[in-house]
UniProtKB/TrEMBL annotation:
Listed InterPro entries: Acyl-CoA_DH_CS, Acyl-CoA_Oxase/DH_mid-dom, Acyl-CoA_Oxase/DH_mid-dom_sf, AcylCo_DH-like_C, AcylCo_DH/oxidase_C, AcylCoA_DH/ox_N, AcylCoA_DH/ox_N_sf, AcylCoA_DH/oxidase_NM_dom_sf
Boundaries of every Acyl-CoA dehydrogenase/oxidase N-terminal domain copy: 6-118
Necessary cofactors: FAD
Organism: Sporichthya brevicatena
Domain Acyl-CoA oxidase/dehydrogenase middle, residue spans: 124-221
Keyword Flavoprotein: yes
Record lineage: Bacteria, Bacillati, Actinomycetota, Actinomycetes, Sporichthyales
Name of the molecule in the record: Acyl-CoA dehydrogenase family protein
Keywords, sorted A to Z: FAD, Flavoprotein, Oxidoreductase
Protein family: Belongs to the acyl-CoA dehydrogenase family.
Domain of life: Bacteria
Domain Acyl-CoA dehydrogenase/oxidase C-terminal: 233-384
């Protein structure tokens, strides 16, 4: 049994790491200080490297690569900056993948070439002010009138939804009632230039300052009936399937953060001196670094195991369980890693000019986005056969 990535994956890792360290890392502090949100030049840089099209079909300009390849890219971007890592993850996982998986030939031809090339971004409007983990509680409505969907409602915390490059946001909405009285949820693609669609001012967030995140308003938004994505009434189920890949990708993002904490902390422990010796010589620091190394390795193994299961076509149930396990462990390990790194850096870990402070701010959302830690524990418990509510 081999736990090593292929030579191609490792070669690709070196390419992405070189790009992240040379093209992204030197600019992150400036981009954050400017306070303008997601820098277009960063998106363009990732696009030139082909990162947005890694898993897309070749006929639309993609590379047709596996999920493991995408995870490698997200890990390496996330090792430098989480905001840009989530930009890539959401652009592919929530923007491109739903269209590539459930879109018609016409929808794919219309939207995928620009999205795959990074000339445009797409968002996915699922979460609402009162419907987060309980996505089945969606209140946004879409009524079919004279060949058009008329959409009214609001969404919250939507990534890549209001940037100058954003061209389309897929929205989940109640389109009727099922035979058993439950809400029928469908997914509908809404171009961002549609009258009545508004990306409200960006959130002021604790972290992910370079990520584009907005609340959305749909006020009598009208789009063609043909903008339905996938089957009517299957929007929620479709999105749950998309989330399996997303959770593995978020896990890779968390691995990148933990690895970044380890890299910076190790370098600091070797150069920072106290009482005439490098602090890394002290067991109190050395043991913290050792524990951090263990957490990084465990998180990485869980992440790439889940990606391998998906790439190998293993049963959906098996992939779902592995995705939740990886996401739960890696996200919580990342949060702990930032706390450890800040402790090793001491007062400097509290200063904004050091990346540790940014990592600390960015980490918490990993335990919340794409399924909270509590949701992951519910899913894992169900996977064990327990009758969890």
């Amino acid at each position: 049994m081999s736990f090593a990535l292929s030579e191609d994956h490792e070669s690709f890792r070196k390419v992405v790491r070189d790009f992240a360290e040379k093209a992204l890392a030197p600019n992150i502090e400036r981009w954050e200080a400017e306070g303008k949100g997601l820098p277009t030049e960063a998106v363009q840089g990732m696009a030139e490297l082909g990162l947005f099209g890694l898993t897309a079909e070749e006929e639309y300009g993609g590379a047709g690569a596996d999920l493991t390849t995408l995870c490698v890219a997200i890990e390496e971007i996330g090792r430098v900056d989480q905001s840009l890592g989530i930009t890539l993850e959401a652009a592919v996982g929530l923007g491109i993948n739903p269209i590539a998986t459930y879109g018609t030939a016409e929808q794919k031809a219309q939207w995928l070439p620009d999205l795959v090339a990074g000339r445009a971004l797409a968002g996915f409007g699922l979460t609402e002010p009162e419907a987060g983990s309980d996505a089945g509680g969606t209140r946004t409505k879409a009524v079919l009138e004279n060949g058009e969907w008329v959409i009214d409602g609001s969404k919250a915390f939507i990534t890549n939804s209001g940037h100058e490059l954003t061209s389309v946001v897929t929205v989940t909405a109640r389109t009727g009632t099922t035979a058993d009285g439950k809400a029928e949820i469908s997914a509908i693609m809404v171009p961002t230039n549609t009258p009545g669609f508004t990306a409200e001012p960006a959130y002021r967030k604790l972290g992910w300052h370079l990520s584009d995140t907005h609340p959305l308003t749909y006020d009598n938004v009208r789009v063609p009936e043909a903008n339905l994505l996938g089957q009517r009434g299957r929007g929620f189920a479709q999105f749950l399937n998309i989330l399996d890949d997303g959770r593995i990708a978020i896990s890779a993002l968390a691995v990148g953060l933990a690895q970044g904490c380890l890299d910076h902390s190790l370098a600091y422990a070797l150069e920072r001196k106290a009482f005439g010796q490098p602090i890394g010589k002290k067991q109190g620091v050395a043991f913290q670094l050792a524990d951090l190394q263990v957490a990084v390795e465990a998180a990485r193994l869980l992440t790439y195991k889940a990606a391998w299961l998906k790439d190998s076509g293993r049963p959906v149930k098996e992939v779902k369980q592995a995705a939740s396990i990886a996401k739960l462990y890696s996200s919580e390990a990342a949060v702990s890693a930032t706390r450890t790194a800040a402790q090793i850096f001491g007062g400097y870990g509290f200063m904004e000019e050091y990346p540790i402070a940014r990592f600390y701010r960015d980490a918490k959302i990993l335990e919340i986005g794409e399924g909270t830690s509590e949701v992951q524990r519910i899913l894992i418990s169900r996977g064990l056969g327990l009758p969890v509510e």
